[in-house]
Amino acid sequence: MGHALSTFVGAIGSVKDLMQLMVNMCDAFNKPPNRDGMGGGENIGYNRDRLIKEAQQHMGMDAVNHYNFIFCGPAKGGKSTLINAIRGVKPNDAGAAGVGINEVTQDVHCYDYPGLARVKLYDAPGAGTQSHPAATYFTDKKLYAFDCIFLIYDGSFLESCKQILEEAHAWGKPVAFLRTKADRLLDDVMYNSGIDDEQTAKQHLYVQIQDAFQRKVVAPYGPHQLFLISARQLRLARFDEIAFFEYIRHAAARRQFT
């Protein structure tokens, strides 16, 4: 799982670190990738590269000059809210990803990353619904065409998530897990356990999440990164936001040099 779930930093230091990391990210994404995003995936066979290129062309994706990240997972997991937070826009701003009480996203949408022209963030519909069934979700949404898959993890690890992870492994596509709404989870821990100290409550929260993740994901599928983040407080970097952005930067480095 890496060290994301064991990193505890104060709010002031976190903001400074996050700002420096954003500067480093600008350096990392200043030039186009050296590779076309094909990656590994020996299990798919000789049609793999053709299928990826066809999918990229179908979606109008520039896999030569852009780094393409997709956010997917269960409906109402906070994908669109997180993409807005990463881009620094509010739900009512022009060009923001649609959010609402009901599932809003029905198609895969591409969003620019302000300040990082070569980064594209894709928002996918919620998986495992009647409109977007789990059994065909990975191929329907052409997840194999992307550089990296960010999979929303709500603690239950639904069948739709299992399907995405297993097929991503077969295609050789990297997957990182995101546990969103961390601020609400922390409030719940403090309320339910009667802990007043935030750092103590945060440690309890990390232990609970790590234990479930180890049992449901790591044990059957092997090590994966899991980031606990709060979209509403992303820039405060109270949880694993710095590690999350660092992961994006390293994903760019892998694309550049492997």
Fourth-level CATH superfamily:
P-loop containing nucleotide triphosphate hydrolases
Weakly predicted, low-confidence segments:
1-12
Shape: globular
Query: Major β-sheet, in short?
Result: 6 strands, mixed
Give the beta-strand count.
Answer: 6
* End-to-end distance: 22 Å
Architecture per CATH nomenclature, i.e. the level-2 architecture: 3-Layer(aba) Sandwich
Strand order of the largest sheet: 2-3-1-4-5-6
Query: Oligomeric status of the shown chains?
Result: single chain
Indicate the structural class. alpha/beta
Which CATH class applies here?
Answer: Alpha Beta
| Rg (CA only) | 18 Å
Write up this protein.
This protein is 43% helix and 12% strand. It has 8 helices and 6 strands. It has a 6-stranded mixed sheet, with helices on both faces. A hairpin with a 2-residue loop joins strand 2 and strand 3. Helix 4 (134-140) runs parallel beside helix 5 (159-171) and helix 6 packs across helix 7. The chain is globular. Mean pLDDT is 82; it is low at 1-12.
